[in-house]
Specification:
Elements lengths: L18 H31 L7 H28 L4 H5 L2 E5 L7 H16 L7 H13 L3 H5 L2 E5 L4 H16 L1
Antiparallel strand pairs: 1-2
């Protein structure tokens, strides 16, 4: 593979109206997957340390710390996946691959900056009654990429979603939601 950054990948225009939905579904799958890991960690803590029928204040604090630590760990985990594979489990299922403007994988630093920006501008503000999502959608449709991808000169490519991936995705989402 040619590691030189001499070949610039041209930006695609967003012509497919499914692109924002694919990106949102990919994020939802990633969040559900990671939330399931946090849920299992919290379940282990409760099963291990519960002293009776009632949860103690200390246990609540411990669970809160695990959740905050888990959110803090998501940024480097996502950055590692994006810098090594160019995708996350949700993005893989939806046929999304993230590369830099030369078509090369992101560096860990670039991927970390992007992951932090996604949390800051998107997920963290889910409390904003949908306004951050509408802003991101508008920017994506108008500019062809999200602000967090443009900040680091990254580009999302959209491969055809393969039926096998959908066969993996649908039971995975059902499992993540129900169990």
């Amino acid at each position: 593979m040619d590691n030189s950054k001499s070949k610039i990948v041209s930006k695609q225009t967003i012509e497919d109206s499914w692109v924002p939905i694919r990106r949102l579904l990919a994020r939802v799958v990633d969040v559900l997957f990671y939330a399931k890991i946090l849920q299992m960690m919290c379940g282990f803590i409760v099963a291990r340390f519960i002293g009776g029928d009632e949860l103690t204040a200390g246990l609540y604090e411990l669970l809160g710390a695990v959740i905050l630590l888990g959110i803090g760990l998501w940024i480097p985990i996502e950055a590692l996946l994006l810098s090594r594979l160019g995708t996350t489990p949700g993005k893989w299922c939806m046929g999304l691959v993230l590369r830099d403007c030369y078509g090369l994988p992101l560096t860990f630093s670039e991927a970390s900056s992007r992951a932090a920006a996604v949390w800051k501008r998107g997920q963290w503000y889910w409390m904003g009654c949908g306004l951050p999502e509408m802003r991101a959608y508008h920017f994506l449709m108008r500019m062809g990429d999200t602000t967090w991808d443009l900040d680091i000169h990254a580009h999302m490519s959209y491969e055809t979603v393969k039926p096998l991936k959908l066969c993996i995705l649908i039971p995975l989402v059902i499992w993540l939601l129900l169990f």
